[in-house]
Automatic annotation (TrEMBL):
Pfam families: Sigma70_r2, Sigma70_r4_2
Organism annotation: Maribellus comscasis
Domain called RNA polymerase sigma factor 70 region 4 type: residue spans: 121-172
Gene3D superfamilies recorded: 1.10.1740.10, Winged helix-like DNA-binding domain superfamily/Winged helix DNA-binding domain (1.10.10.10)
GO MF entries: DNA binding; sigma factor activity
GO biological process assignments: DNA-templated transcription initiation
Stored SUPFAM superfamilies: Sigma2 domain of RNA polymerase sigma factors (SSF88946), Sigma3 and sigma4 domains of RNA polymerase sigma factors (SSF88659)
Family: Belongs to the sigma-70 factor family. ECF subfamily.
Keyword check for Ubl conjugation: no
Domain RNA polymerase sigma-70 region span(s) in chain numbering: 24-90
Protein name stated in the entry: Sigma-70 family RNA polymerase sigma factor
NCBIfam families recorded: sigma70-ECF
Length: 188
């Protein structure tokens, strides 16, 4: 969740106190890396792209007007950088080791999953989603981005984002359901 402190640090950086940018990097490094990793499928490339995204955001910080959340602006930079890199290299999309699954995430009904395996199942299911659906789920459920913000990051319409998110949830449910069935058959 974005705090009012982001604007404070952004203003400090804009006024020449660049050391405050480390707060922004520290706060957003995990999600920026996770987006890059999913798109690029390679840890080293994702680390490099995350770093490049923060550098690009730093150099472009003067253009940030605050009309959207800073996180939305940063995720858009990251996503666009990664898509450009994929197009350059003509590679395919990716993996999810660094997502943090919270037990208190009430948007996912996880009651049917054994608690000790919940995170493992969700990460495995997320990895099976196509990159666009993965990004939508990641931003909506794990980064608390609104549909409007997701629309800005991915450059798809809000109605299309809603439809794709709905389909991604259905697909995620089906994947999790199939995984649990397999687990039961293995036990029996």
């Amino acid at each position: 969740m974005e705090s009012k402190h982001d604007i404070y640090y952004i203003e400090k950086v804009k006024n020449g106190q660049t050391q405050y940018y480390s707060y922004i990097v520290e706060k957003y490094k995990d999600i920026v890396f996770s987006i890059a990793l999913k798109v690029l499928k390679n840890r080293e490339d994702a680390e490099e792209m995350a770093q490049e995204s923060f550098i690009k955001a730093f150099k472009s910080l003067h253009t940030f007007k605050g009309k959207a959340k800073f996180s939305t602006w940063l995720y858009r930079i990251t996503y666009n950088n990664c898509i450009s890199e994929v197009r350059k290299r003509k590679i395919h999309f990716a993996s999810t080791d660094d997502i943090e699954i919270k037990d208190d995430d009430s948007d996912f009904n996880l009651d049917g999953l054994p608690e000790e395996n919940r995170e493992k199942y969700i990460k495995a299911a997320l990895e099976k989603l196509p990159e666009d659906e993965y990004t939508l789920v990641l931003l909506y459920y794990f980064e608390d981005q609104s549909i409007e913000e997701i629309s800005k990051v991915t450059r798809i319409s809000e109605s299309n984002a809603k439809v794709k998110l709905f389909r991604a949830r259905k697909k995620l449910y089906t994947i999790l359901n199939d995984m649990l069935k397999e687990e039961i058959y293995t036990i029996l």
